[in-house]
Amino acid sequence: MEEKRVFHVNGYLGLLVALLLLVGGGWGIYQGHYFLGALLILIALLAGSSLTIVQPNTAKVLTFFGSYVGTIRDAGLFLTIPLTNKEPVSLRVRNFNSQVLKVNDLKGNPIEIAAVIVFKVVDTAQALYAVDDYEAFVEIQAESAIRHVASEYPYDTFEDEAALTLRGNPNEVSAKLNAELQARLAVAGVKVIETRLTHLAYATEIASAMLQKQQSAD
C-alpha cells in the first residue's frame, strides 16, 4: 500500500454550496415539494460530513468503510469524499532518544550506548496500515539497529590504529546506523533524517580496567 492523493476542493466553497442546498431544501419543503426538499437537505448533510480541516504539517488519511481512499496533505479547509473517516498523521520532524543500552562490542566487551534518531513520516498510508503503531515501530527498530551496529565494531583498539572503532569513528558509525535504520523503517513510510550517538562508554564493571589498559597503551 502506498500513499495517494484523494479528491478535495476548497472547503469554503463547499460550505457555501452546502448552506445553499440546506436553505433550498427548507424552502422546497415550505413550498410543498417534500421529496425535492428532503433530497436537497440530504445532499447538504452529506456535503457537510465531507468537510475537514487540515493543520499545517499534518495530513488527513481517509478511509471509506474500512478501505483506504487517499490522503490530503494540503493545509486548510476542504470538501472531500463524504462519509469517510479522516485520521490525522503528523508530518513534523521528530526526535527519538533511545535509552542507554548495554551491548557487547565486537570483542565481547560490555559497553553502554545510546543515540538520537531524527525522523519524519513520508508515506502516511504505510505509516498507518503497514505496521501496528509506527511510533512504537520506530523505537523498537531503532534500539535493535543500535544493538546490531554496536556489536559490529570494537569500542576501541590498542593494536590497529587504522581499524574503525565506536569511540574513534563516530561519524562512520552513525552513517552505518542511519543506513541500517532506514532500511528497517522504509516499510513504515518513515524517513530517517539523521542519527547521532549521544552516549558511549564501557560498562561500569570493566570501565576502570579498560581505562588502565588504555593509559598503559598510550
Structure in words:
- The chain is α+β, with helices and mostly antiparallel strands.
- Helix content is 41%, strand content 29%.
- The chain is built from 6 helices and 10 strands.
- It has helices at residues 11-30, 34-49, 124-129, 134-150, 170-185, 204-217, and strands spanning 8-10, 51-54, 58-64, 67-72, 76-80, 85-90, 94-97, 101-104, 110-121, 190-202.
- Strands 7, 8, 9 and 10 form a 4-stranded antiparallel β-sheet that branches. Strands 1-5-2 form a 3-stranded antiparallel β-sheet. Strands 4-3-6 form a 3-stranded antiparallel β-sheet.
- β8 (101-104) and β9 (110-121) form a beta hairpin.
- The longest helix is centred in the first third of the chain and has 20 residues, at 11-30.
- The N and C termini lie far apart (56 Å).
Helix content: 40-55%
Roughly how many Å apart are the termini?
A: 56 Å
Topology pattern, helix = H, strand = E: EHHEEEEEEEEHHHEH
The largest β sheet comes out as: 4 strands, antiparallel
- Identify low-pLDDT runs: none
Number of strands: 10
- Strand fraction equals 25-35%
Name the shape in a single word: rod-shaped
Radius of gyration: 27 Å
Secondary-structure-derived class: alpha+beta
DSSP helical segment count: 6
What value does the average pLDDT take? Answer: 89
